Amino acid sequence: MKSKRYFNTTGFCMPERHYMVDPLRNQKIIFDLIEKTQYFTIHAPRQTGKTTLLHELAHRLNKEGNYISVVFSVESAGYRSITEETANLKIINSLYESCELFISKELWPKKSLADEKCSLQTYLNNWAGSQKKPIVLLLDEIDSLYDDVLVSVLRQLRNGFQGRPKHFPSTIALVGLRDVREYKTKVRPSEVSLGSGSPFNIKAESILLGTWTKEEIAELYSQHTKDTGQIFSKKVIDRIYELTGGQPWLVNAVANEIVEKILKSDYTKKITLAHAEEAKENLIARRDTHLDSLLDKLKEPRVKNIVSAIINGDSLVYDNFNDDLRYVIDLGIIRKEKYDIIFSNEIYREIIPRVLNFSMQENIREEGMTSCYIKPDAKLDMDKLLKAFQKFYRRNSEHWMERFDYKEAGHGLLLMAFLQRVINGGGRIDREMAVGRGRTDLTIEFAGETFVLELKLKRDSDSKEDGLDQISRYLDTLGMTKGYLILFEIKPSSIIPWETRVKWENVSHQNKKITVVEM
């Protein structure tokens, strides 16, 4: 039978149409803050369920009958050239129009007239004063506002704060991609603080919406099983958790890809691990809107610093390290795991390097033909492949790196682009990258064989020895004895000429056979 509900990948979730995990299940803190008439922020990366949570919260509060609650977006005022006066009017109109979705007509605020000069503070003041119940206002997309408009809105909310709950909303939640402290940077990057009159000091709490646990993914998928009889096994759920890191949009997108696209909504078919892998590849190849908006962030200098460091395995030492790190974590691109700073999940780990080196991949022509590196027994000739890359790198790297956005990580990205072109013909690359590791580890699987490559920048005379120790330890964890250490010289060829920097050497180190490939 055809299921009435489905896995949602666009917009917020509705219980009657979509499989969904109750967004308020762990949010006692929100109800406590509302009871205490506090203001707070909710922040989370795109498509992690913020708007779903807000709608559920407003509907629940209105149904219980103790509060008047409305969700509205300020995005209509989110462009640079807007005046504060026009922004106020747009925000007031957005609030008025949203009331229809949440509350009955007699509870609405008065409609604002186009020629009426009314501040947001006065409008909210008049509305609260005309109601018997306290108002809970859920203000979405707060970080779409710019500069003076953002400051103006926050100041008006702070100024009205003391009049709550009789003459101003009892609780206001500011909702966006980032925490309020991030708005300070956005508004006045050159100043540490906006002073004691700062509009940012009224919030009692900052709530970060987390990713889902394996149990929550299992709960979501069990709803599909209940509707259709089609089962997501524990093995499949564990693998989807690894691929997505519990990121809600990805969890839904992988399931939707398997159920609707790959299995064509035939619920009699068994869902396998191979389907999960196929779904991952399809999502990466298709780059849906969610992935595109994530990748758009890679152009920002603050994001670039952190992402380059992860790809190179560099340590991070510069003034804004903590702020930048928090910002990129808040965007959902990276996460901290024990001592490591890594990409948030396997899909991001795969797609970010592929997107960054996409133009390189497209420009690799005959050298990137898979057939050139296949032995008669259909196995991959890794020595031949890496020798071809050495030649290619010598010919193209300086010219290409000059035009490349991610120069710092360019050496490794160029090798990954070259490998991707070849390996796509029948194998897969797994990347292990983290800040401060001093290297990037690649595991390549092709025709039943596994190859281990370690990429390292040659920063000093110890780099080679360090690299040999590192790849030996990595091979130990994999239970293997053979690998390749790829060393990239970072000094220009005017200082160290190509004749002396391109080397190929087979060494024995800590009972391992390691081929050292320098360039």
UniProtKB/TrEMBL annotation:
One Pfam family in the UniProt entry: AAA_35
Organism domain of life: Bacteria
PANTHER family assigned: ATPASE DOMAIN-CONTAINING PROTEIN (PTHR34301:SF8), DNA-BINDING PROTEIN-RELATED (PTHR34301)
Stated name of the protein: ATPase domain protein, prokaryote domain protein
UniProt source species: Candidatus Omnitrophus magneticus
